[in-house]
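ARCHIVE CARD
Drawer: 12
Card no.: 0347
Subject: one protein chain, sequence and derived structure
Cross-reference: see card 0346
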Amino acid sequence: MNVLINERVREVPEASTVAELKAQYAPMADVSIQNGYPANPDDPVREQDRLVFIRKGEIPPLEDLDVFMAARHTPVVHERLKRATVGIAGCGGLGSNAATALARVGVGCLILVDFDVVEPSNLNRQAYFIDQIGMPKVEALRANLLRINPAVQVVIHNCLLTPMNIDALLGKADVIIEAFDRVDQKSMLGETCAGLLPDKPLIMGLGMAGYGSNTLLHTRVAGNLYVCGDECSEAQPGMGLMAPRVTIVAAMQANQALEIILGPDQRILDAAKKQE
């Protein structure tokens, strides 16, 4: 029978076990993953199973790193993610954290647009480091993303996004994530996309100031518009922006982008129905 071992097709005997194939193909490996889940040595291997064997503490070649990073994915999604492009408008708390999540799952191309530089108050919620203060955010974020996953293509535009350049800069993306701080910028992007790119999915973040109140966070869907957040807690005097809530909403945006690219995860929907 044929199985995939570290994404290479291998013909192996029927009734092989994980331990037998590890001994043959990766005897020094410390981690065994079968179809996205940690495997027991005695687990049987079936036709078309995906096995990944990883040695801890060893930096692998780039071609293997891509495989190893996707080892815990739901099977068959990685190639579809690699073909996808996500545009991110704004590289602050939402954009930098959403981009980080998408780079980790292996989205093939990320388009980053922002005109600002990293400054000290950004570090309470944005995916930057002290030694990047003063750098353009798009350059700093690209450097960080490529340290995480060098297989991702990161296209940067160090400029202000306006109605005149949205189509040119983000029109080729499969999905656009809105990640601005200001309400007027959010409205501008939403209105422009509705007029110029009406069929393009747009994922907005609205309402993430303060802390706590996890149960208020949600995603509202209206056609190709997705709004993540609580839709009420705007940053204002006495209510600032902090890492936990901002990062949760950024993760919701990234997760929504995956669902748009891949379609709903039926296993999750089925599990939810069983809980009802």
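Annotation on reverse: The longest helix spans residues 243-262. The chain has a mean pLDDT of 95.
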